[in-house]
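Now for our target.
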Amino acid sequence: MWTIAGVLFAVASLGIHYQVKFRMHPGQAGGSIRQMGNVKVGEAAPDFSLQDLTNQAVTLSSFRRQKVVLLDFWATWCEGCKEEIPWFAEFNRKYATKGLAVVGVSLDEGLDGRPFIKSAKVPYRIILGNDATAKKYGVENMPNTFLIDRHGRIAANYVGLVDKDNVETNIRAILSQP
C-alpha cells in the first residue's frame, strides 16, 4: 500500500513539474508567464498594504510614478527563493539609483525569517505577506516574482527559479521607459 502511495505521489509531482516547467515555460528552465489566476501581464498589479520588518506600512501603490518594482514572493523554506536573493540584492545595488525598488514578500507563515534575512544580509525591503496577498497575485508555488512598471502594471510574472539574465534585461528595458 505504501509503495502505491509513493508511486502516486511521484507521478503527481512529475505532473506538477511538467506543468510548471514545460507548459508554462516552453523551452526555458524558468521564465515569465502571461497569466496566473486573475493576474495578467499588462494589467494593474493588485494593491496591498503590509508591514515591513520594522512595523512600517508598505503600500504597493506608493511606488507608482516613481519606481519600477521587483516584487518577490518567497519563504525561508524555499531553496529556489534563497538562491535568487543574491541576484535580487545585485539588482538592488545596480539599479536602485535608476528607479528600481526590490521588495521581498515573506510568506513564512508564523516562522520568523529575521535570522535568515540578517545572516543573508538582504539589503532590500522585506515585508510580511499573508495568504490574502498571495491569493491576490495567484501565488501557489514559489519562488514567484513580479516585475511592475512605474504605472503599476505587471510587466512580467516569473514562476519558479528566474533566469537572472532575462530578468535583468527586462529590468533595464522597463527602467528605460517613461
Q: What stands out?
A: The helical segments are 2-23, 79-95, 114-119, 131-136, 164-175.
